[in-house]
Amino acid sequence: MNNYQSSELIKNLHDSLQNHTLVNVIQGNSSIFYTGMVIALDNQGVILTTYTEDGLANGLAYLTFEDISDVDFYSEDITKMEARIGAAQKLDLIGTKPAEIKLNQKVDLLTQVLGNAFVYQQPILLIKNNGTMMEGFVTSLGKRQVQLSTFDKFDSSNGGHADVLKSEVRSIEFLGLELNLLSKSKKLLLTNHIKTVEVNEQLQIYASLQRAMESGRRIIMIPKINPELFFIGQVKAVNAEAVIFSVVDMNGQFGGYELIRLDEIGELVLKSDYLRLINHFVSLNLANNTYKQPILNDERSFDDSVNMFEALLNQAMVFKRFLRIKTKDGESYFGVPFKIGSDRISLRYIDKNNPYATKRKRMNISEIDEIAFDYLEAVLARKRIMGIN
Fold first, then answer.
1. Is the CATH number 1.10.8.60 carried by domain 3-190?
2. CA separation (Å) from 225 to 208, 244, 263, 266, 328?
3. Full-model pTM
């Protein structure tokens, strides 16, 4: 980045700070960006609030100027996010209030971020200049170096210690929803690793789903297509063809429902460190009345004696509910069915390349592997696009 680009970038960040305007801060030559408002600047970096795609506040981020390639302060995406933040506040959704940090102008921002994390034992997500990412608690802070007690949410045996030079820090996320839950789970993060229990044979999977429905226990479902997109949930209905899960997200909050064909399930995880952690998050949210967004329904019941795909698609057509549909070829579509025939549906869906445009597609119901429904994005999209208050 040349001096002119650098000065323009810092000028735009100053404008956001002074005018309290929303910006997209794009990280070094990539498509990754934070949406938020600048709350502090110094000679090395910036602190900004961050928001999710649904317009919910999600903690703060510190970025060095070297990690920023561009600042977008006027675009369709910014306008869209301003509307989503306003809608979330109007609906009184959980998590609309941005996190706060007390700052001292006499001390550099990086030291203050690390110092606050140390004093209040708030975990951070730190990324070094070489791309190394680590989560942990600050255990000591010196003039040039910080020491972390690191943890691995997925395998508690991978915890350890790391010494990081301040000059090596590229960015830090802190005070977000998941990180706040992790701060209340420190003892659990340091608990002994438990052996992972998983099943991957078809008969074992079906039997495990039946037992999970009877007991109400949560399990991890890993699909055959895109196995990295696993989810955690309770079984609400299951038959010889498919299963419906009541899903929880990475923050231990209700995340809607997922219908999936049994032959598309690659594996179930019945016990693991991460499953134990998410169950703890759920307990914390239930105790604090933050488990469910007020506009969501986590008490739906389902009839497993019928073809659940046809039943769900018919309901969505009648009530104009948004669905995320995944087909056997790995494609996904986010939209509303408007016509259903014999094993055929017509779907009006949002164009991925132009969120302000829609397309139409016909497909066989038998081609559909998964349907996600009644989750926050789907409910907000229905309200936004159909003008429902």
1. no
2. 20, 17, 11, 8, 8
3. 0.92
